Amino acid sequence: MKTLFKKLYSTSGCSGPINSNLISYYFSVINSSPNCNHLRHLHGRLLRTSLYDNVVLSSRLVLAYSQHHHLVPYSLSVFFHMPQRNIYSWNIIIGEFSRSNSPLKAIHLFLHMWQSSDVRPDDFTLPLVLRACVSSGTVKLAVSFHGLCLKLGFVRSLFVASALVFLYVSFGKIFDARLLFDGMPKRDAVMWTAMLDGYAKHEEPTLGLALYREMVDAGVSPDWVVMLSLLLICGQLGWLKHGKSVHGWCVRRSLGMELNLGNAIVDMYLKFAVLTYAHRVFNLMNQKDVISWSSLILGYGLSGDVSTVFELFDNMIAKGVKPNGVTFLGILSACAHGGLAEKASSCFELMGDYGVTPELKHYASMVDCLARAGHLEQAEEFIKGMPIEPDAAILGAILAGCRVHNNVEVGERIAKKLIGLEPEKPGYYVLLSNIYAAASKFDEAEKVREVMKGKNVWKVPGCSLIESESWPSSSAKQ
Fold first, then answer.
1. C-alpha 220: how far from its chain's center?
2. Nearest to 285 by CA among 267, 272, 302, 301
3. What is the pTM of this model?
4. pLDDT for the residue 407
5. 178-186: long-range contacts at Cβ-Cβ below 8 A with a sequence spacing of 24 or more?
6. How far apart are CA 258 and CA 266, in angstroms?
7. Per-residue pLDDT tens for 40-52?
8. Residue 432: what pLDDT?
9. Where does 122-258 have alpha helices with state H?
10. What is the pLDDT of residues 174-192, one digit of tens each?
11. What is the distance, to the nearest Å, from the Cα of residue 157 to the centroid of all Cα atoms in its chain?
12. In a 10 Å sphere around its CB, with 0-12 CB exposed, 13-18 middle and 19+ buried, how is residue 267 labelled?
């Protein structure tokens, strides 16, 4: 450090034009600054010389302060005190705010540049502003910026077009995103990936597979981000075999079990209840976060493996990972399947100790646990004390418990509430009819069936999905 400052202050006596070597030297020093205190020394040195007038150095100083988590006030203050600003410096400050927790500030800075300076945006500026629109959720403003892109002639830029596709996908406007996508004469991997991700996340698996075929036919090599979308699509379509194919592709390409990809593969196997494979992938992951642990706990919880759930939970706490709502949902589901009503109650109370606020799904799991254990009156009292209004799923859990434990009295009360909430749902009528029939109250059961006929409500027969042998022609095996 002493050597660095000797070199730094050895330039104090320099005079005449500043050569490019000196600018490069200071640029390198700013770039390698270890902390904010060091940056302030450099900042002061630049102010005492004409070096601060160099827009490249002062812009790099703006970026350096932001990288040391001093976007406000240091980066912003340096930026507005710069002797001159060009599109490079504007892009830096707009980009840093668009990636921060204050994306609206990025939009305000862009508008300030547009209205109060002669600097005009380039095809790097507009994607930053569009990203800020996504982060801030300002849909109308985003559409206005799309209009500006058209006006300035940037819509054919790959950078801008990819950002627009991502923007419309993020706001759920898949049709608009596809129109933009189809209108581009050239597409890069970012645009293909954004469109495929949109189809996967908005549950359009068939369209997603068709796009994947086009992508491979166009010669675009899929990467791990594409694999994330394909894993999601396989889960939506119920294609375990093809999900395994995607997993195999990742192994053959030596992608490793990095966090996002590992979580996606674990989630895919859990959707098919292939817990052994999910657990194996989980163990191979280089790092694990709360999503990794919670997904596995939920998978085992839904399968009713109580011992494994609590073993995983204990290991998770021992590793210092703080549980979230999904974690407790898995625990409550395990307790429900195992008939552990008392254990579920203690775990429900434990949520507060970890700062997790119960949601409707947690209350539903708790009610389901009580109902399965036969504590139907207790479940009825539990929903009365809920801070939120119970929905049909919660009441349905009690009604299902009444069917199992032949509790006609509670069943009648809950069924009337459910039919009042959703009179078009045939399942409630059928359950009530079956409760009456199980209690040998055949006249009442017949009356319920007659009511169904009178309201023209019919129970649709169930169906199953069968996985075919075929895989799209351009498969992930490439």
1. 25
2. 267
3. 0.76
4. 85
5. 184/156, 184/158, 185/156, 186/158
6. 12
7. 888 888 888 878 8
8. 81
9. 125-136, 139-152, 158-170, 174-182, 189-201, 205-217, 224-237, 240-252
10. 999 999 999 998 898 899 9
11. 28
12. buried
Q: How far apart are CA 283 and CA 299, in angstroms?
A: 15
Burial of 297 per CB tally in 10 Å (0-12, 13-18, 19+): buried
pLDDT at 7 over 60: no
What is the average pLDDT score of the chain?
A: 87
- Domain spans, the chain: 187-274, 288-358, 364-459
Length of the chain: 478
One of 2.60.40, 1.10.20, 2.40.160, 1.25.40 is the CATH number of 364-459, namely: 1.25.40
Question: Residue 284 is inside which H or E element, if any?
Answer: helix 275-284
Q: Model confidence at 307, in pLDDT bands (50, 70, 90)? A: very high
pLDDT at 370 over 50: yes
Tokens matching residue 12: 């104090």
For residue 352, pLDDT beyond 50:
yes
Q: Which of 168, 217, 221 is nearest to 193 (CA)?
A: 221
Residue 77 has which token pair?
């203050």
